[in-house]
């Protein structure tokens, strides 16, 4: 599983993304004020879960895999939480984070997308 630092580095490369620390130290990544990925702080040396927005189809598929569950408090909006470092490859995780960013980006107004240079 990618590290929290690698997760943050990737999210930072996504155009117009912003980073805030919320909810007791969670790394929360947003585009246009809307969240697309979260890495909560669970303690030093412990596995860090990652929650991301996915589309309906991907949600149905991924929540059937071991180590991936509907994200607490966000499942109704089709968010998943990756709870195991073996649940998916680093490459797949990076792609899903990028996809989450793109899903949220498409929900922004045309004006906001233009202001963000998207």
From TrEMBL:
Q: Which domain of life is it from?
A: Bacteria
Q: Which InterPro entries match?
A: YjbR, YjbR-like_sf, YjbR/MT2646/Rv2570-like
| SUPFAM superfamilies attached to this UniProt entry | YjbR-like
Protein name (database record)? MmcQ-like protein
